[in-house]
Amino acid sequence: MNSGTEKEKNRRITKNSSIKSGMKPGSLVHVGVPVKEGVRISLVKYNELDYTEEPVSVIGESLTEPYDGVRWIKVEGINDTAAVERLGELFNVNPFVQEDILNTNSRPKLDEYEEYIYILVKSLAFEKEKIVLHGEQVSIVLGNDFVMSFCESDTHMFEPVVRRIKAPKSLMRKRGCDYLAYALVDSIVDNYFQVLENIEDNLDELEDELISKPKQGTLRSIYGLKKELILLRKSVWPLREVLNLMQSGDSEFIEKATEMYLRDVYDHVIQVIDTTQLFVDIVTGMLDTYLSSVNNRMSEVMKVLTIFSTIFIPVTFLAGVYGMNFAYMPELNQRWAYPLFWTIVLAVISTMLIVFKKRNWF
Amino acid sequence: MNSGTEKEKNRRITKNSSIKSGMKPGSLVHVGVPVKEGVRISLVKYNELDYTEEPVSVIGESLTEPYDGVRWIKVEGINDTAAVERLGELFNVNPFVQEDILNTNSRPKLDEYEEYIYILVKSLAFEKEKIVLHGEQVSIVLGNDFVMSFCESDTHMFEPVVRRIKAPKSLMRKRGCDYLAYALVDSIVDNYFQVLENIEDNLDELEDELISKPKQGTLRSIYGLKKELILLRKSVWPLREVLNLMQSGDSEFIEKATEMYLRDVYDHVIQVIDTTQLFVDIVTGMLDTYLSSVNNRMSEVMKVLTIFSTIFIPVTFLAGVYGMNFAYMPELNQRWAYPLFWTIVLAVISTMLIVFKKRNWF
Amino acid sequence: MNSGTEKEKNRRITKNSSIKSGMKPGSLVHVGVPVKEGVRISLVKYNELDYTEEPVSVIGESLTEPYDGVRWIKVEGINDTAAVERLGELFNVNPFVQEDILNTNSRPKLDEYEEYIYILVKSLAFEKEKIVLHGEQVSIVLGNDFVMSFCESDTHMFEPVVRRIKAPKSLMRKRGCDYLAYALVDSIVDNYFQVLENIEDNLDELEDELISKPKQGTLRSIYGLKKELILLRKSVWPLREVLNLMQSGDSEFIEKATEMYLRDVYDHVIQVIDTTQLFVDIVTGMLDTYLSSVNNRMSEVMKVLTIFSTIFIPVTFLAGVYGMNFAYMPELNQRWAYPLFWTIVLAVISTMLIVFKKRNWF
Amino acid sequence: MNSGTEKEKNRRITKNSSIKSGMKPGSLVHVGVPVKEGVRISLVKYNELDYTEEPVSVIGESLTEPYDGVRWIKVEGINDTAAVERLGELFNVNPFVQEDILNTNSRPKLDEYEEYIYILVKSLAFEKEKIVLHGEQVSIVLGNDFVMSFCESDTHMFEPVVRRIKAPKSLMRKRGCDYLAYALVDSIVDNYFQVLENIEDNLDELEDELISKPKQGTLRSIYGLKKELILLRKSVWPLREVLNLMQSGDSEFIEKATEMYLRDVYDHVIQVIDTTQLFVDIVTGMLDTYLSSVNNRMSEVMKVLTIFSTIFIPVTFLAGVYGMNFAYMPELNQRWAYPLFWTIVLAVISTMLIVFKKRNWF
Amino acid sequence: MNSGTEKEKNRRITKNSSIKSGMKPGSLVHVGVPVKEGVRISLVKYNELDYTEEPVSVIGESLTEPYDGVRWIKVEGINDTAAVERLGELFNVNPFVQEDILNTNSRPKLDEYEEYIYILVKSLAFEKEKIVLHGEQVSIVLGNDFVMSFCESDTHMFEPVVRRIKAPKSLMRKRGCDYLAYALVDSIVDNYFQVLENIEDNLDELEDELISKPKQGTLRSIYGLKKELILLRKSVWPLREVLNLMQSGDSEFIEKATEMYLRDVYDHVIQVIDTTQLFVDIVTGMLDTYLSSVNNRMSEVMKVLTIFSTIFIPVTFLAGVYGMNFAYMPELNQRWAYPLFWTIVLAVISTMLIVFKKRNWF
């Protein structure tokens, strides 16, 4: 296994996906950037009356103790393969799902198993300055009486959801596991709008730059932005199907009452996809504008050069002629020759200018 | 909630959509440009015999009083979140619908609920001079015995519909709530044709400009128009599905008799989509024409430059040679030298011209 | 109603479509180019034994008199709104259909009603010289024992069909109304092939022009042709669905025996669509060829300029040097200086030529 | 009927298709290139034990005599309309099918009738030198106990199939009419691979030419090839549907056992379509490569010109200055002036060269 | 049969596919690169307790001996047509399948027969240095109690699978033939990720090269990569359908338990297709960047040329004027003339520079 080479760290798209090539399927390998800090696992339990959150240090039977309410096993950081494996055993999770949780290069999807639904989504963030889209994989396992969530790193991504659970009268406290799963997906999708806004700001800046004073890097930035938009589209597109499956009403893990909420998230995903496509179209338009303005300016430059050259080349030739040292050049000694020379020069120049004017060259 | 910043006001596409990111779903936040004047709410009641319209100052039980006919609650301006919330409570409208009404960045759609249908469409206007498409969101809630309409601002958009209701013998007076909803959607779709006509005028003007005398801004205007057309397509496209759902005959809120009318609106929407696509194709063609004409002209300019340069550069060199001051240049003293020089010059020039003529350079 | 303005007459695509914006749906407004001559209406009656054709001056009950055979009400020119309205009343035709008949900007379609089928198609003609596609709307109302046809103007479009009806032994005389409707649609679709042939002739001419001697207008003509092809595609595309519906065998107005004929027309429409798409591809290819040949020629011109300039610029400089008037220029007085000068010049020129030859510049 | 004009013979795409415009549908007109030699019709009869092939001179009842095996009426050349008509009568073939057989401009298709299936395919050949795709229409009528095949001309296209029938132990002899129809279609589809190979050879040659020494005609050849590929795609694409229908197992004319063979042909057709699309993509790539290399070379040429010009223009000016004849130019008489002049010239030239080197201009 | 010509060996896409054109379908011809070493056939037998692997020298009845477990006939190298034929006979394999096994130019597919499933996939490898994609065809015949695999050459492709079988406690040993088939397909698909990684490395290198110092060959490499990506897409795309069919649960040869594994492979294939498309988009973007940077640089070069020319051309003319030898040029004798000349020159130059500065030319 020759992973961890320098080359590999630069790959953004196919990163590590082939690491298990040739191994037995379903075998657990932790595929991900090695994070220094350990995995942080918490067990959140709540029902209408009660709420507790405790860190989990030993993964054992205590996690599967029945509870009259929702049990949420929140895993942040997935570089502890053994932990994922043990959680998988405890909750009877298929090895393939475990593999998907660890392989951070999967595609958003929803797989339905007998005892749970497995949902894989991408949490995204956009770095305005560098024009780079960062993706983090989030796995959600929705069982009958538990939810497990796995984030790639320790980012407190679900803080807002936790806060809502803490509020004693919030809707969350009254609803089941499916609502929690919905809330997690919803919080991720809501973040996409933040990404889109950042991109739009970036777009606007670049558009301004393009019009006022295009710098060396402007073109490169626009192409960079287009590339990130293509990546964004790739990350969000499959989510459409995921949410379609969730709200379709066929699953026993999702209550009728939650479907309405999922429809709302579905609408948001469609909107994100639409807007991404729109941005791609706009960026393409910007590039076209830029290229044609470069072409236009080149055409202008050419005209200036041509006007100057065609005006002065003939008269320079004439000056050269009368600079010649032939012994017998009768004109040279005529009094009227020099004024005539200037007359000819002015005539040539003004004729040229009239011709160019007629051709709309300036 | 960091809305209202300067940056944000410039965003046209993702405006405010992420404002509720992290809040509980369905929570009501008024998302929209803060309008100075208050919300204007009217209650229109009518049946075959009767018609009344009264402004509503207090939103209370009086609105839900049963009436033998159509009750239309017309809301113009949606910056009073509390008003929308109270109306929602009175008519038992889902919080998600309330959220959609207030979030002016949604996509056209039709959602069917148990007690009503929710229809979201975009009313559009095109400003010819600035080449900008303005969109305003219109929400329609169609219940069994009432219709609620929400416009973004106080634009008297539905004046023509009101006028038709006032006419005692109009068809409107004989029909139910579904017909009113149809009439509202129809009046919005009819306006799209006005938008298309304005765009076509703009297209024609730009095409003329392009052919006669392309100005600096012509290219920019064409690209701007293309961008607006993409936005227009994005706004109208989902309407196709909305009207398809309406006329499909599955809903209990829409009578058989109204479906025929909806089919007509559906046809119009298809036509708008078709024409928009056609315009996009035409604008693309215009850009291509422009770019190739720029290329063509550059090629012409290059030819002029090359003709002049290649004709005069050799003879100027020759003049330079005989301007040299070498002590021993036998030609200089020959009587025939100067006439010979001119003969050579003329020979060179005419040879060049013949060559260029043959190559079709002028 | 602000129709008839100068602006509007130039619009080819959205012409008049918004005229009824804000009116009650189904209201009758004659939307069309005002034709000077009145509407020409004829009543054609025929069965296996009999054939009569008479002009109709007064639209009255006589038109609906039962007849053992086919009654064809042929309307040429639709600028008499009242006539269309009265015919509509007599044959119980829906106001929407009446509106569609008059609004000459509709999309080809087939609408099935209880008592008749409404078919809307576009008759097309291509003006080779101006490269313009003319479209005329034809409406056909197919009832159980009558057919009504509405042409936009007085063009004797259906002459061939009439001639076939007149022939006592023709198949037409033996068949019913559905066969007549088929024959009308078929005669229109057959005309499309004429349009395609004209376009191909035009394409061939332009292709020849492009290769031999591209004129100023050639490029513009090609772009114009492309635009007309896009319009053609838009007009023919929906016909596919119309004929699919007609031959699907679900309608009670169309006999089993006629379906076979409709399948044939369907095949023709598919062929027209295919060929149109092919032409669009070919025109696009022509434009690409042209642009790359312009680019190529510019590259050639540049080379000529560069060859001349780089050859003569250094030697001209040298000539300039020895034209200087410095008091102490020892070379000037050497006998070998002048021949050496020419040697250097020839050396520079031949070196240059060899370099350019190696780079394949000529 | 103004067919046969000179113009028309040049049309490759819409050739003759509108000839029957305005005639009664199903009327028989021979549409095709008038071939001098007459039609060649043979009657092939075979079963497991027996095989006979005889030329048919008179089309009469003898052709329909029952035979315990397969009767194959092989028609080569279709310019004898009467023959096709008589065959149609004898075998009860629909006039539309007869029309399709004669109109050589139809689209590949499969039409199922009560007593037979009608299959229309295109036999293709590619002329490498001229880069032209030739198409010939082949019609197959598959009945319960007979097969009729119609080729456009006398090309011995089905020689291989005949040879297989002659072999007494071949599979053909054991199978029925459907297998013969399959064998005919298969032999045509197999020929497509020949076409593709020729095209690939052509592609490879053009690619080599493009890299080594692009000639004037190279670009034109590539565009020509692209056009032929588009035509090829148009001819093969509908075949997909034809074979899908044949192997779908719904027809009573095709035995279960033959479907497996048809699936094989279907696979081949898909492969041909795939490869054609691939070729289109590759040709497009070649064109892009070419255009960018032209652009690149132009950029190189520009650089050479600019380097020479910018180096010599300033020093030529300087030489000009000291060639002036002003009475008072103090420098002229200084001893150090001429060496200084050369120093300045060399300084200017080397500075320029360093600047251009830094900018990576050479 | 004119195969084996020199020409043919260069064809990468249509290689040999037409070889059987005109032969009887299903006839066995070995189509493939003639490999020197013979075919290597092994018989692997295993069940939960037992494992044996033995080379097969004679293809005979011994291969079909019943065995309580999985029999895997592993064929490496397919240039022994007779061997394939004999294996086909022994296992009752359809001649078409035999043909597909030998024709190395087929498309990935899954064909279901009564006694087995035939699966055809492409094993791929990417040669980074030459930017070439190598494909090898792999055929898998999955019967009820046997699996046959055919590789094009002797590449030990399935080593990892063999190793897993050898491990006594591996899952493989407990499962049936369908699991083995799955494992073979999975090992091939896993290899695709290696290909994608190599391509991404290549992409990254080319991108770096493009930014830092684009060489002559960079552009050609990018186009080459794009072509290989198109080929890759063509090879992988049909696999989607293959796996969809396999996991659809309709086949009797695939157990319910294996479907889960196939779903995993299906996910991988989708991911490969997605990533390939993404790479195509990125390469296209790179080409666009390159072309626009070439354009940009040309524009810069033009500016430099124009600045120099327009500055020096007028003053060189002036110098030429006062280099003339007219007898009467009053200025020449004025003391102030020479300093005035320089003043004019400096004025012209600085005016020019200011103008260019204003136009943002440098």
Structure, described:
With about 350 residues, the first copy, chain A, is an alpha+beta fold. Chain A has 2 domains: about 5-290, 2-Layer Sandwich (Beta Polymerase, domain 2), CATH 3.30.460; about 300-360, Methane Monooxygenase Hydroxylase, Chain G, domain 1 (Up-down Bundle), CATH 1.20.58. The first copy, chain A, contains 9 helices and 7 strands, in the order αβββααββββαααααα. A 7-stranded mixed β-sheet of chain A has the order 2-1-3-7-6-5-4, with helices on both faces. The longest helix of chain A is centred in the last third of the chain and has 66 residues, at about 255-320. Chains in contact: A-B, A-E, B-C, C-D, D-E.
Name some characteristics of this structure.
homopentamer; 362 residues; Beta Polymerase, domain 2; Methane Monooxygenase Hydroxylase, Chain G, domain 1; 53% helix; 15% strand; disordered N terminus
Largest interface by residue count? A-E, 63 and 61 residues
The computed structural class of chain A is alpha+beta
Count of spatially separate domains of chain A = 2
| Main β-sheet description of chain A | 7 strands, mixed
N- and C-termini, Cα separation of chain A: 68 Å
Order of helices and strands of chain A: HEEEHHEEEEHHHHHH
CATH topology of the largest domain in chain A: Beta Polymerase, domain 2
- Total E-strand runs of chain A: 7
Characterize the quaternary organization of these chains. Answer: homopentamer
The CATH first-level class of the largest domain in chain A comes to Alpha Beta
Mean pLDDT across the residues of chain A is 84
Low-pLDDT parts of chain A are 1-6, 17-23, 28-36
What is the annotated CATH architecture of the largest domain in chain A?
A: 2-Layer Sandwich
Q: Using only CA atoms, what is the Rg of chain A?
A: 34 Å
Helix content of chain A: 40-55%
